[in-house]
Amino acid sequence: MGYLGYKPADKPLTSADITDGIIVNADIANSTINLTTKVTGTLPLTNGGTGLATLGTANQVLAVNSGASALEFQSVSSDFVKLATTNSTAGTASLDLSFSTTDYDTFFISANDVYCATTGAGIALKVSANSGSSYVNCLGTMQLGMQHNNNANILQPYTGSTGNNNTTQFFITDDIHNGGTRTVSLNGWLNNSKNSFAPHMTIFNNSMKTAANYFQQSWTSAQFDTTSKINYISFYNTASYNMYGNITIWGLKK
Amino acid sequence: MILKKTVNGIEIDLTPEEIIQREQDAIQYEADKLAREEKIAQEIANKQSALNKLKALGLNDAEINSILGK
Predict the structure, then answer these.
(1) Which helix or strand (DSSP H or E) is residue A235 part of?
(2) Burial degree of A199 (CB within 10 A; 0-12, 13-18, 19+)
(3) B4-7 and B10-13 as β-strands: parallel, antiparallel, unpaired?
(4) Residue A41, number of CB atoms within 10 A of its CB
(5) So what's the pLDDT on residue B24?
(6) Which residues of chain B have pLDDT under 70?
(7) Which of A34, A77, A152, B3 is deepest in the core (most CB within 10 A)?
């Protein structure tokens, strides 16, 4: 602003000198607003924000709330939940899984590259309804597995039935080593059925590398003599030697 | 003798009772295995006996395979 005569004394411009509401967007230079220090409050959803000013906890995801009215951090939920896993590369007498049945009646079990330390030993399964304190007898009428053919020294599907064997051993396969050339991988289901006439069945699809370039598969299934929920399974070497491999169980929510 | 089991990835010593049970399981397994092998051997013998009797009746291999669904 121009002046006549003496120059007026300089006076710092203060907020009080500016009428409220007269500064418009065009008065502000582009690319100058520091969003770290020059803003406050929480940017609402309607303005492209989240409406949130705090972070969730580890591994949570941002999602719409149950009322479909706002965003919120939520823990990831799934009806297919990993419950337990066990493995041994150094060798163990058995690979066991202890798991909760609170939210589940159906379980998926996967075993990978299971084998025994010595030729001649097989793999069998036991199940328990009291966390391994005791084991449940099989009422299996379709206990099929991989049978060792002594004449050809190969594993082949056993097509017979062991019937109602009334033992705790659920047969999976005979000799699963043969000098280190054999391994078994299996995927199967365990059902803690509520039907007392058909309780607690398990079915496995067994895939076996039976020699360097040979591959075979078989089905094994069993029914277990208990009305209590099975909460523990044990894959073990039938000859009390070491075994190796990895076994995991998942639960499907009711 | 192995004295440990692995539960949910944790090695646990077998109790004396568990060791005894495992020894009994091994015996049971061998008995079951022998029973399976004997059953298969008996089925093979029965099949061969049946084939021999069919041939003795005058059926040739093609006729036998036909009734066997081969």
Answers:
(1) strand A232-237
(2) buried
(3) antiparallel
(4) 7
(5) 87
(6) 1-2
(7) B3
A124 to chain B: which residues are within 8 Å by CB?
Answer: 25, 29
Chain B: closest CA distance from residue A68 (Å): 40
For the question of an ipTM over 0.85, the answer is: no
How far B11 CA lies from chain A's nearest CA (Å)? 8
- Quote the pLDDT of residue A223: 81
CA distance A251 to A254: 9
pTM of the model: 0.72
| Shortest CA gap B49–chain A (Å) | 19
CA dist., res. A81 & res. A148, Å (int): 36
Could you write out the DSSP letters of every residue in A173-217?
ES---TTTT-EEEEEEEEE--S-TTS--EEEEEEEEEEETTEEEE
Least confident of A104-113, A143-152, A200-209: A143-152
Each residue of A209-230: pLDDT tens digit?
777 677 777 778 888 888 888 9
Q: Do A162 and B3 touch (CB under 8 A)?
A: no
Test the B interface: residue of A166, A168, A236 with most B CBs within 10 Å: A236
